[in-house]
Amino acid sequence: MTETSNTPSPAAFEEVVRTARKFRSYYGHVSGLRLDREAPGEAWTRLPYRPVFVGYADIGVLHGGVVTAMLDETCGMAVQLALDGF
C-alpha cells in the first residue's frame, strides 16, 4: 500500500488560507482577531488589546470569555487549514 501526502500544493494551500480568512465568525471580524501565520493544520492569531475586553477593571485582566472566543476562533481556522478550507 502506498501512502499519499495530505499536504496540499502551495497554490492549493494559498486558496485554503484565503478561504479561512474570508469565512470567519462575526465575532472574529468585529473583535479584530488577525491570522498572523498559518501552516497546514496550524493557525497563529493575534487579538489587539481593547479596554472593552477587560473583565477585571482593577487589574486590567482580560475577561475569560474573550480568551475562550479567541481560542475557539483560532482552532476553527486551524481545522480549516488542515482540511479543505470549508
Question: What does this molecule look like?
Answer:
It is a single chain. By secondary structure, the chain is of the alpha+beta class. It contains 3 helices and 4 strands, in the order H-H-E-E-E-E-H. The chain has helices at residues 10-22, 26-31, 64-82, and strands at 34-39, 42-46, 54-56, 61-62. The strands form 2 sheets. A two-stranded antiparallel sheet has the order 1-2. A two-stranded antiparallel sheet has the order 3-4. A hairpin with a 4-residue loop joins strand 3 (54-56) and strand 4. The model has no long low-confidence stretch (mean pLDDT 85).
User: Rough shape?
Assistant: elongated
| Unreliable spans | none
Overall pLDDT confidence? 85
Strand % is 15-25%
Helix content: 40-55%
* Number of H/I helices: 3
Number of DSSP-assigned strands? 4
Tell me the span between the first and last alpha carbons. Answer: 29 Å
- Rg, Cα atoms, Å: 16 Å
Q: Let me know the largest β-sheet.
A: 2 strands, antiparallel
Find the structural class using helix and strand composition: alpha+beta
